[in-house]
Specification:
It is built from eleven helices and 16 strands. It has about 325 residues and is an alpha/beta fold. It folds into two domains: about 230 residues, Rossmann fold (3-Layer(aba) Sandwich), CATH 3.40.50.300; about 60 residues, Alpha-Beta Plaits (2-Layer Sandwich), CATH 3.30.70.260. The strands form four sheets. The chain has a six-stranded mixed β-sheet, with helices on both faces. The longest helix is centred in the middle third of the chain and has 16 residues. The two termini are about 40 Å apart.
């Protein structure tokens, strides 16, 4: 099973494990007159799961392409494993494992053949490649599907096989773009289990996802981007506490309730026929609303990363 050995190489050939795996400073990416990434800075430490969240067009994909050395930065600096992405793209790519959003397995091959063919790109000897492939299929609970053609796999099996393929070269950094897209809850939870196991083995993982529960469960730290900029960065629980509160009061949105909340000086947001009210003492606020605002339905629930995301990026649909 691959275990991450992250960090910058020292002069003696070893790895300085405390050095950032990825470090960006004032990173910019332009496509003609369009600024997709606008002067962002971040660093990713060894062994952590780091997430990039944001609506469509936020700049996540452009950032990922620069990290993968497939699209050069317009300005700023970006290093991966301590090496500049512009001058050392070939070396960096050999140390990456990439899980794309699309399913791009070769339908002409079986599961194990997909892994063995991929291993050739890294000049892995045939016997070692087979050993790695069999180990990875077992790890991803696909050993019984080794000789099955790709068309014979379910969606969840295909996503697990793509993850196995990304691990063939024992990467130091895993980059996952929507790793559980289109999966049912059971398959999604199995993928989460495997990603947590990989982190426990020492791997560093960078992911993008639109499943905010996924980010909340997996990420040690994350950033939320919008319109090319990083809006916030931090641990999911800290961001929820800071921008939504541990608990949120929800009630029906009526003129009487809105007027009442304004008189209280309470921060609130209206979403359709419901209003969310935020307070450091949510249960006290809920009782006060019940006693004075004639709210109809009212309940107190746990604050989530989705509350943070929607509060920062808005609710308008992005195409």
């Amino acid at each position: 099973m691959p275990v991450g050995r992250e960090g910058k190489e020292t002069k003696g050939g070893g790895l300085a494990l405390e050095s950032p795996i990825i470090e960006a400073r004032d990173l910019v990416k332009d496509y003609g007159n369009l600024r997709a990434v606008d002067t962002i800075s971040f660093s990713i430490r060894p062994g952590e799961v780091f997430g990039f969240l944001g609506p469509n067009g936020a700049g996540k994909t452009s950032t990922m392409k620069m990290i993968q050395c497939v699209s050069p930065p317009t300005r700023g600096t970006l290093t991966v494993f301590g090496r500049d992405v512009v001058g050392h793209a070939r070396t960096i790519k050999r140390w990456l494992g990439v899980v794309p959003q699309e399913t791009n397995l070769d339908p002409d091959f079986t599961c194990i053949e997909n892994l063995l063919v991929y291993a050739r790109y890294f000049d892995i000897p045939a016997a070692e490649a087979r050993q790695r492939a069999e180990s990875l299929l077992a790890f991803m609970q696909l050993e019984e599907k080794a000789d099955v053609p790709i068309d014979g796999l379910s969606g969840g099996m295909k996503r697990r096989l793509i993850l196995a393929r990304a691990l063939v070269n024992n990467p130091r950094l895993l980059i996952l773009d929507e790793p559980t897209i289109g999966l049912d809850p059971q398959a999604r939870h199995l993928m989460w289990e495997k990603l947590k196991a990989l982190q426990a083995m020492g791997n560093t993982i960078l992911l993008t996802t639109h499943y905010l529960e996924e980010a909340e469960r997996l990420c040690n730290r994350l950033v939320i981007m919008d319109r090319g900029k990083i809006l916030v960065e931090g641990k999911p629980a800290d961001l929820v506490r800071r921008y939504a509160g541990d608990e949120v009061v929800e009630t029906e949105s009526t003129p009487e309730v809105i007027s009442c909340l304004e008189e209280m000086g309470c921060r609130y947001e209206v979403h359709g026929d419901m209003v969310q009210a935020f307070s450091g003492q949510p249960k006290v606020l809920a009782k006060r609303i019940l006693d004075t605002c004639n709210p109809g339905r009212l309940f107190v629930r746990r604050g989530t990363l989705e509350d943070v995301f929607l509060s920062l990026t808005g609710r308008e649909l992005r195409e």
